[in-house]
Amino acid sequence: MRYLPEHTVIDVTQWERATVPGGVRFTHPNPNGKRLWDVHGFWETNDHAADVLDWYGLCLAADVASPTPVTVTLTCSLCRNPREEALPEVTASAVLVPGAPTFVPFAQFSFDEGMGVLPKGVIAVTVAVDDAVAGASGAAIEPTVVRFVAARELLLGCAVRGRALVADDPASTASYDVTFVNMLDVPQTVTATVKRHGKEVLTTALADVTDAATLRENDRAGLPAVSGKAKTAVDPAESAAAADESTPAAETDTSVAAESAAGTLVVTLHPHERRIVRLTVHSSERLAPYGHEDQLLVVTSASGESQTMRFVTVNHSDDYRTTLTHADIDGITHKIATQDWAKAAYQRRYEQAERWVVPAVDPAADHLFQTRNSDEAYNCVLITLISGERRFAEKSARFLREMIAPDGYFRTIKGGSQELVHEGEFFKFIAFTVDHMRGLGLLSADEEARVHECFRTFMEIIRCEMMKGKLSNWQLCELQGCIECAAEMQDIEAMDYFMHCDGGILDHLSRGVLDDGWWYESAIGYNYLAMGTFLQLITTVDKWGFDLRDVQVPASYGRFSAYDDPMLPASDRIDGLTTEIWGTFEHNTRSVKQLVDSLTPFFSHDGVIFGMNDSTEDRAPAYQLMDPRYDLAYRIYREPSLLPLLATVPPEQRDLWYGVDELPAVDSAALEAFGRSVTAPVAGITMLRSQASGRDLDEQYQVTVKTGVLGGAHGHYDRLALNSIRRFGKNFYNPENVWYSYHTFMYKFYVQNSITHNMALVDLKQQDPTGARLLQFRSDKDLQVAVHEIVTRWCNPPYGGWVVTPGADFAEQAWIEGRSVALPGGGDEADGGAGAGAAGAAGAAGETGESGADGTHAGSAVTPKYASRSGYTEPITQRRATLVTDDYIVLVDYLEGTAEHQYDVLMHVNGLRSITGEHGGALAYPCADPTDRDHFAYSTGGVAADGSTVGSDDASVSTDAGERGPVDGVTPDLTYRGVTPKLDPSPLSSGQFITDCHVFDARGTVKTSFAVDMTEFNGGKWMTNTRSNHNAPGIMHMDVWSVAPTSRQIVVGCDPEYYQIQQKLHYAVFAGDVDGSFVKPASVAGLDASAAAIDVPETASTLVLADDAFTPDRYVGVQPLASGKFGAWIFGSGDIDVAVPADAKSLTLQAVSDESFVAEENEHWPPVPSLFWGDGAIECADGTRVPIRDLPYTVENTVPVPTDDRDYEGGPVKIDARRMATSIPASPADASHPAVVHVDLTSELVAAHGGAVRFTATVGADYPIGDERDRRRTLDIRTHGRTGSFVTVIEQHDGTPQVRSVREIPTDDGRGGVIAVELADGRTQRITVSDMTLSDADISIA
């Protein structure tokens, strides 16, 4: 055991007792009914469970007449914050015997070693006779003893098991103090010796050093007080013995034998006594730099049972112990002096060091610093080492002193501002900083020791975290933080532990690297992160002899990459998330080199790679921030295939710290890899590249199809999706084009779901992830072919996404985020009134429950459990053929179920311009305003009864969005059916977030055209309306030809692009001129008290905000005519219709924005100005309506708009998807005060019509902001039936399309089809698919 507990026995019989069949169940007291763990920073504790992690197990006894088999069940608590704890149960068999205790070690219980964290929270122990015994006699067991024991006879404890000595100093030693605890009620004599192989050069000695000082010192060697909570219901016998445990050696008669020639120490301990034995290791000049030797302490108790404890003593290093070496620093200095790129890179790092200001600690914050400050501290030290200017490293030293101050790390147990993964990064750079500043004399020995205390606390947090069975980039970064801390302290035993433990670095390499070399999360950015982490670890651990660079670890063949997935029931897992690995295995080992090589074939010739899962397009990075990427990969492996990637990196963006001085020239043969089609079957990406002769690589199609593993939390539900197209340096799509942060409900309720991808859907639901099969993959000269199949169910996505805030339900979470949504069981949307809240008091009625026979949502009106899926279909067979020619792409989709379903093929593209039927005709527009999203064209031609083509002469602009059907016997290609507010009205569907949906009935081939300059999205931050990057200048044109089925619906809607507008809006309308203000109590419980304490003037009103989803606001003073609150974003509005008092001469409109911001990337993002009073009007006595924009009005504390009746960026004002003809801005200039509009009702415009009698308006957030023409669109091609068959042709071009027409001709046997494509040069290509179900299709082009 590393850290000894305060008590070593817990008497379970003092817990709450209940009789169960065959025995008894003891439950830990939980008076407050808690289901969450307590978290102090990152330190997790549970006050309703026993923490017996690292303990031996249980001691049982009962009054039995003969040996009695029993089953012992532990109910354990797993921390799942913000979700409630999981409660897995594990069992062990034991036999109770008369007159003696029975010991049941934890190793005997039914949980895997990879889930070793389970004893950290035991909430109940059940002891019952086996079913066979109970069934025969009806017997039940009544145990007299049920105790957790830290050890059976003798407990050994030592926190630090790795130290350094100076090998060439004969007087140098390293010592380790080991605590011996007698667990028995009687004295026992034990022997201790150091086991030797015979090759050791470091000699050892053992001695009993127990005295009051060493006992106190050993007690202080534990973790901070935050971890020192006593266990519940301690055995009284142990408490009685506590005094004996601390008795100094001088006051006892314990005999200690002198050390024998063989190195054996004999120690006699009183009952429950603690003693300190010191292992001293002596130096030897034979130990090499960074060399080490093991010492194995063997302790044998009185019964003959032996225990071992391993120590590792290393030769002290004056060189750097973590990354880099003194020679590396010299090399960087030379590089700067000789290489222009390095000079430029150094100048940027120097300026970065100049800009950094050591942050002050906020005593009210739950963390110390913004996470990236540790990067800055390390950068400053490196700049000092290169420039010789100590002032930079002095800033780093001040930063470290802030961390170790009394109100520093041990107050928060959280150094950085983000998640535990980032805490690993934080401590990594702290370790680097301390290591590289050691020779500068800026830290005292005491300060360095306090830094080490922080290190060891963080390492213990992560040691427990690794026992949870998880595997991801999070654990990888956390592990690196531990290893770098251990390396800085020269604790090689701890380094070795985190390298080799379950969940350790080598385990991550074995389980995390897939058979095709990809990192299992299968998101490009996390591939980079995993690769960079392993590479940087190589620079540290290999100098200590670990050989991570070349190690080949045995592959893991487990079905799941995480250990907790198969152990926990579905109800205790995040619904829909799996770490299951599908596919076959071809390689029996895993290595870092496989990971480095995995992505290379998928980059384009210009170094750009597609987005996949949670990632966008990206260029091959030399480094990221202060973390290494491909420059270090080349430095370590000198792999020629990396050179074309690094050649695309601008020289000034090379990695100063890890990049080689000069990169060799790129061999032209290496570029051939960027022209080949390739597949990674387990990660699940297939890239098809056109092979047109004489074309630059830039003009060739690069098309990817997504299959493969889900990849855990970062995976998307998009098997068989068209994942990307890159041509002419432009990308039309990545999976994060519409992105909401991890800590929002939209992340799991929309972003990752099937509806956001370019794929075929069933009932607009979410695909249940499972393995897909690759039926065909080939690369011919004229045609690239990939055919995939998946058989799976479809369901509603997790209702409300995933749990974000502990204890909050979906309605409360939506309010916290400031985002109104529909709730099941009410009206279509939130009504915006008090109590509607962000989630709304109402949702879409009758749209819940399981799928009916037709695949729609049954009207059970049952709201699913928060964060749970529902409404499953039967298994649906789905196949897609992706065919890439020189000039276009063909998608052939086939879906088949046993029931009727709605099938939709979706595409997501920016810049809708037109929808054209095959017979053309004049164009109509739903809206005349060219800045409006509804300003797109559709053709009006069709076919007459005699089969002739008819082009409509009606070229007028339609602004009423009314239906346009058959005229004078003409069947149009497109019949406009108007607009539906949402793609799917169900509050259970992700389709509710796709709005403003124009619906067409379509016949024949239909072409939908898009045009957009994708460079306008380049370089956008994480939270932006359309995330896209690395697009070449110029317009991206895309034509999507819907060829089959012949008759279907076509819908075009608007994706919910991200705008930073979400906020909690509190509004009110007053009669007269009212002075408004507001206060925000600390909690809703304080509303009445806050209201009672307010004294306001007669003409004033103070709003007392109710900051929850359903409690109405309070107003003190003048009461409003109308008021309400809601979350203002895409949805949500306050619709006001109120009588105006006869004596009212004015109205006061008040808007209070209680911001709900997203704090990501260490930035605070308040909402941008977006609030408006829309279509405000006074109804007069004679019925006349007068817009308030036409009346005299004044505004206070309101952000002005550039143009009247337009939004803050000149676009139309739309609230809750409704366009406002007139509008007045309502965004507060100073958010601490209301934005106010005073409307004069004495105007002649009102008086002439009998005066004001009613006021109507809509208040809310404008969405989207600005010109809407380039909005991201959902193109939905829809049909119904038991089966669905689609043919879609896509051309991405530079403005000169090659495709002139497309049609499908059935083959003679009726099973297949010929897709005839007429090209601009007069050729007609015919792609023959022999079986349109794609189960066994021959596919050819002629």
Automatic annotation (TrEMBL):
Residues 826-840 have a biased composition (Gly residues). Transmembrane segments: none annotated. Residues 949-959 have a biased composition (Polar residues). Residues 826-869, 947-978 are annotated as: Disordered. Residues 841-855 have a biased composition (Low complexity). PANTHER family: HEPARIN-SULFATE LYASE. This is Alginate lyase domain-containing protein.
